[in-house]
Specification:
There is one protein chain. This protein folds into two domains: 18-128, Nuclear Transport Factor 2, Chain: A (Roll); 132-247, no CATH class. Helix 1 (18-31) packs antiparallel against helix 2. The chain is elongated, with a radius of gyration of 25 Å. The protein has 262 residues and is of the alpha+beta class. It has helices at 18-31, 35-41, 48-58, 186-196, 214-220, 233-247, and strands at residues 65-76, 79-90, 93-106, 109-128, 132-147, 150-164, 167-181, 201-211, 226-229. The chain has a five-stranded antiparallel β-sheet.
Length: 262
């Protein structure tokens, strides 16, 4: 098979060439969290500092998922410089890392490639997969959430939370409440007036999703305002349906071909 070449001179991989097989093996090593497997993919010429940096960044306790995708490939001596993007996950947490790998044919098997260099390019940490916890249900009693120009008063209703390693990070509410939006910025006041006829928008709410950092959750939502109650399966099902609808409208990160999860 022939590899196509773009106008920039980049060499595109064929379906099953040596680099593709190497990256597949690397994905397996990362997904199984096996440093020994990675060592078998590394060349003896891989600088120890570069190998150690890759291992410390890419192999973490509890890791059980990996996706490795080739983004760019350029000839370098007998091998290639390959830009790879990796999504690494453990439980509901993950991070994305971009590395430039120097890969070269193995001396005893030219059809197979090995990692001869590893340079970090970029990373995004702190990714979480939001999952609504329907095993615990709460009742909100006069719960107030305030932010700049915004006040939410949740008089009464059912609440379900989403949990991440650091604590709770989102709240689904169904019940009786109200919202007041009174921006301080004059330009925003003009926009609100054009929408509602007044510089302040006030409206009742029956359902909403609030996302907040785990660090701020306990400060914002004291446990005295969220009272645990027995789980009602019907409430849980309705909360999950609402969560599926609203969570896609909040801040999300598209991971493209790394995973279909959000």
């Amino acid at each position: 098979m022939l590899a196509a070449t773009s106008v920039s001179g980049q060499v595109r991989p064929t379906q099953a060439d040596g680099v593709v097989r190497l990256l597949t093996d690397l994905e397996v090593a990362l997904g199984s969290n096996s440093i020994d497997e990675f060592a078998r993919l590394a060349a003896s010429t891989l600088p120890p500092a570069e190998g150690a940096a890759f291992v410390s960044s890419s192999f973490r306790e509890g890791q059980g998922f990996a996706a490795v995708r080739e983004r760019d490939r350029r000839p370098e001596g007998p091998g290639f410089k390959v830009l790879v993007e990796m999504l690494l996950g453990r439980g509901g947490a993950g991070h994305i890392a971009t590395w430039q790998l120097l890969v070269r044919p193995k001396a005893d098997d030219p059809d197979r490639f090995e990692v001869a260099g590893a340079t970090p390019v970029a990373s995004v940490d702190g990714l979480v997969k939001l999952e609504l916890d329907t095993t615990r249900q709460f009742v909100a009693r006069d719960l107030v959430f305030s932010s700049q120009g915004l006040t939410l008063h949740l008089s009464s209703g059912t609440v379900f939370l989403t949990q991440v390693e650091g604590g709770s990070t989102a709240l689904i509410f169904r019940g009786r409440g109200s919202m007041r939006f009174s921006p301080e910025d004059p330009a925003e006041q003009v926009q609100v007036r054009a929408f509602s006829g007044r510089p302040t928008l006030e409206t009742p709410v029956e359902s909403l999703l609030i996302r907040i950092s785990p660090q701020d959750f306990n400060d914002r939502f004291g446990t005295s305002k969220l009272v645990p109650v027995a789980v009602n399966p019907g409430d849980g099902a309705r909360a999950r349906s609402l969560f599926d609808e609203l969570s896609t409208k909040s801040y999300t990160l598209s991971l493209g071909d790394l995973t279909s999860e959000r």
